[in-house]
Amino acid sequence: MTLNVQFHTIFMMFLSGVAISAMFDVFRVLSGKLKLPRWTIPLVDTVYWIVATILVFRLLIYSNEGQVRMFIFLGIGIGICFYFAFLSQIVVHLTLLLIRVVIAIYKFIAKTVEILIIKPIIGLYRLTVIILGFLLAVAIFLYRIVLQLLYPLWRLLLWMTRPVHKYFVIPDWLKKLTGKIVTLYRRLFSK
């Protein structure tokens, strides 16, 4: 391994130390903000360590074909110390800002969907109910007027057909059924 490759490797390990420290802060802030249940903390830690390991070894393979030397751990340690000394607060603040921006965008989209889609649908539903209710009231009103206007003709028709009634006998079951229908109608449509 040449000196140039060694410096390149230690620089890459320095960057990987900074990256895994930044991921640690991001995971820490997200788990605090999302209020994850305690049982998910080991799962999140496992995911963090898997991602960190993959990152370090990918950079190691890229820089010196995966050869592990003592200065690799030194580079990672220097990167971690550098990050926590100079960059940790910036990354935490940026993560919190990003969370606030995502929440604001989510609220904006939810409010937009509510205003542009949900409220018009509810308004159309209410308007339809009002119009149908009005039409039903008009239909009932006209029905009662027609009944009032036809009542004298009905009485006249009954009077004229009275002599013929004795020739047409209505069965008892039909009379009972008619009585039940009239009773049900009066219950439903009378005041």
Automatic annotation (TrEMBL):
One Pfam assignment: Spore_YabQ
Transmembrane portions of the chain: 7-27, 39-61, 68-86, 92-110, 122-146
Protein name, as recorded: Spore cortex biosynthesis protein YabQ
Keywords associated with the record: Membrane, Transmembrane, Transmembrane helix
Signal peptide, first to last residue: none
Lineage, uppermost ranks: Bacteria, Bacillati, Bacillota, Bacilli, Bacillales
Origin: domain of life: Bacteria
NCBIfam families assigned to the protein according to its UniProt record, in alphabetical order: spore_yabQ
InterPro entries, per the entry: YabQ
